[in-house]
Amino acid sequence: MKKLIWLTALLGVSCAHRIDPASMRLTGRQDIDITVDKELDTPILVKGTLADLSRIKKQKRPQPLLLFFKENSDIFKLQEPGTELRLLRRDEDELGFTHYRYERVHNGVPIFGDELIVHVNDKSEIYLINGRYHPSLTIKATPAITAEKAGILALEQGRIHKMQSADKSNLVYYPIGDNVRLAYHVILSGGKNRWDYYIDAENGRVLFDQDRRRF
Questions:
Q1: Model pTM greater than 0.90?
Q2: Do 105 and 185 belong to one domain?
Q3: Structural domains counted in the chain
Q4: What is the per-residue DSSP string for 111-145?
């Protein structure tokens, strides 16, 4: 009962419209389809009538969506989705469907390429969740080089592409198979061209680079 009252207060819904956390649980249900990524052991596709959000106003739904993942941590392999997922944007299409795009973060640092998208239909039902992301991680990493140093190292390599300056350098986790490395995402520029470099934050090695014109 205490959990139900706490959830009601958190979601900002009236006592007459309480949401039972148990109604969000997927474990044991036979009417849903789950496809799991074999390398990461996390679902890349979950479909069915997953949860009813009709009692929650649209502007207040991002928080209950995190609670949905918390209630289904055994399926989504996220122990603390409140700190492991960050809402990037919410889009509504011409059909009235709403799509919530989350990035995966670890210790407040985004994991490059990891995302989870929740799709809600015009009946306020979660009908599809898709994406590719790492499960909860236990690694603790501290950068051994500075953002400035990473920029210098990236620019040394970027000269071959006629890059002239390092414009931005932010910490990310760069995925390597089912593991991740703490890295700096450095954006270089030269004339009208820009280049991405991912520099290992421990040893300064280039993990990956790409021409931003491909986007």
A1: no
A2: no
A3: 2
A4: EEEEEEEEEE-TTSEEEEEEEE-----------SS
